[in-house]
Amino acid sequence: MSERLSEVSDSGMTERAIRTQGDILxxxxxxxxxxxxxxxxxxxxxxxxxxTKRMIYYYFGSxxxxxxxxxxxxxxxxxRVERGIHIDEMSPDEALRTLAEATYDxxxxxxxxxxxVSIENIHRAEHLRQSQTILRENVTAxxxxxxxxxxxxxxxxxxxDVDALDVxxxxxxxxxxxxxxxxTFAAIxxxxxxxxxxxxxxxxxxxxxxxxxxxxxxxxxxxx
Amino acid sequence: MSERLSEVSDSGMTERAIRTQGDILxxxxxxxxxxxxxxxxxxxxxxxxxxTKRMIYYYFGSxxxxxxxxxxxxxxxxxRVERGIHIDEMSPDEALRTLAEATYDxxxxxxxxxxxVSIENIHRAEHLRQSQTILRENVTAxxxxxxxxxxxxxxxxxxxDVDALDVxxxxxxxxxxxxxxxxTFAAIxxxxxxxxxxxxxxxxxxxxxxxxxxxxxxxxxxxx
Amino acid sequence: MSERLSEVSDSGMTERAIRTQGDILxxxxxxxxxxxxxxxxxxxxxxxxxxTKRMIYYYFGSxxxxxxxxxxxxxxxxxRVERGIHIDEMSPDEALRTLAEATYDxxxxxxxxxxxVSIENIHRAEHLRQSQTILRENVTAxxxxxxxxxxxxxxxxxxxDVDALDVxxxxxxxxxxxxxxxxTFAAIxxxxxxxxxxxxxxxxxxxxxxxxxxxxxxxxxxxx
Amino acid sequence: MSERLSEVSDSGMTERAIRTQGDILxxxxxxxxxxxxxxxxxxxxxxxxxxTKRMIYYYFGSxxxxxxxxxxxxxxxxxRVERGIHIDEMSPDEALRTLAEATYDxxxxxxxxxxxVSIENIHRAEHLRQSQTILRENVTAxxxxxxxxxxxxxxxxxxxDVDALDVxxxxxxxxxxxxxxxxTFAAIxxxxxxxxxxxxxxxxxxxxxxxxxxxxxxxxxxxx
DNA sequence: CATGAATGAGGGTTCATTCAT
DNA sequence: GATGAATGAACCCTCATTCAT
Lengths: 224, 224, 224, 224
Hints:
Four copies of one chain form a homotetramer.
Chain A: H1 4-7, H2 15-39, H3 42-47, H4 53-60, H5 63-83, H6 92-109, H7 111-122, H8 132-138, H9 143-154, H10 164-180, H11 182-189, H12 196-215
Helix pairs in contact in A: 2-5, 2-7, 4-5, 5-8, 6-9, 6-10, 6-12, 9-10
The structure holds a DNA duplex.
């Protein structure tokens, strides 16, 4: 199952098979994201596809197998974005801001990814844990951050008691929240966090926060 | 439906009826939080209760009615926490840190609440929107924040381009993420964000961040 | 599951429930006997019942559960027959003949039982082994035989190198075969072993065989 | 369909085609014997074969066609055994014992044959009846028995009210039972009828029985 | 208030079989 | 001859919900 997506580029499959699978995956991604794992209907997915329900089982074995493939697909996508970021010639704080904004941009434009992550968490990540591919490839997400922070600390402009994983968490939390909690937030406060009018300032805010925090004199070191 | 909980304190119900309802709600909260709306089973809830499935329908009308009552219950709980916070004699930055930590404390100790919020978002808050009680009472959550920020801005120590809702969002995002994305984060990075060993530093970090951001000279207004 | 049938006489069930279950069991017995475990259709069983398919799952949990209940039912029936046999005042050979004929009579008039046993054997008795009730109660089937044979050996009229289980096997084999292999035998040799015209002589033959064998001078002990 | 196997020896087929068919038949025999007709899976058979599912349909037309071919194969095998028995110079009782033991030997060493016969009986021999080959060739199974019994009766040492088909039935019943009911018998009485330690005495027992019965003075003729 | 019995609609899954290449 | 892709019918099972007592 974990290998399916990579096989797509192999020649073990016909053009048509690739298209069919891709078609199913696209529809399934939307359905699972919109209704949760239990709420999604295999029948409904099949109905929105060029093919039949039977093909879903032919290619993915089960509802869970399909869900897993969907998960791998969206995680593969975010990896591609991460690989496209280049921060070699920036100052540490510039780099930090760039990384923060890249995450913000990805998450706010990939609602389905965030929804699937939420769903996965409701299920205690039990499906995610089955995918060695995802686990293996996605740890590297913080490699860039580690390098930047190390440089900032070495140059004496970053506090040294906040590690890369903490920073990643803060950035992810901020970006995720925009999408994941969009609806309850809007219902209660009547503000759509993804309103284009807010985008620029929100995009800047996460950069501000992370840079202000890492370069803050009072917080860093001292009495702690 | 939305009025049911308030009836509890009325005298239209026997002691026993109140206990039965409370019992059902407690079990239902756990079940919905653990499995999502579609994933939760009415049978399972009934089985874990002292009463029978028939009682669930007697008191709550339907699965959706029960879910709504559960939502109202957990939202009522967070309101009680908010009402208990007193920041009148603190400096704006102290107050900000206090509010941030209170949110952090609540969310990290009420996993079920966060899970239910996640679930509600997957369903585009369509249930939440049905409860006037929740909507009416929970907007007030930012009243305190508004006062603090206004004071800080007036005193010239806070930037003025970040409003109370933004600050609330940032704090909520941080606190939510710890619980909501706990499992995927742990699966990929092998770090449990709720690990007691991390609690102190994580608790401080959100205060640091919000204070550093609001008091940062470079970020506020000016050149941008 | 194993306790179901005995519960029937308890008061934990309404009259109606007992009837419903009995109805289902009767139809299911016929269906499984006629089509095998895999070949039987739950839909078909439900259709031939006063109730619906849902009730089958309500009472028996699964196709397998139903099959198991069917198995217990037919095995309970044969136990009742066995308990009704009285041979206390017969001579050993008379008793032997009586027991043989009782088995012959039961098997040839309970086609479904034999078919279910055949089916069970195709599945390596994996269901039977799950029923402690059947296993526990049906070993006693040879108690009578043991007593009779012991008496015959003691009186010196039976050979002593054939034990009760062997005799049981011989009798069962003969009686089973009439029903279990009825169709292939008829197809090839054009003789219906259950033809009423043959019944008398076939009934006597198994008695003849078992008595002749046990009392045969040449076979017993001696030169072997 | 019924003619397929005979084609094998014709030259209308390549070496390879013959091997492929044999391969399929062997696997199919095991699958049908182990799971029954409905329980056997064409996919599974194909998977255990060197060839693909398509080939099964190419050679055998359908699941039923394959099953029929399997049936013909195992019945052809037992015919070969029968043809190998020579009893011309034996006394009637010796010959009888020899035939009984031959059947016992064949059945206890051809579990799949017995299982397939059981399965066929569950389906009321409806497949068997389609194969003229099997029906035509297997009636001859009792020719030898007929001759022996006739001789015994003529010589006055055999009773004359038990015909060859009855004897065949008794012998078959005994031998079949060892294999066909092996599992339920073992489950209930904890004795494996095919235990090598029992083989010798069980092998002798059927001979004893049939000879004792046919030569028994009391049973034959007389008062009946 | 409370309980076991009952239900209809639909959900996931599987099977034998066929098509296109 | 051989292969992967595709299919429709049906199969087992489950769920929220209601009824009778």
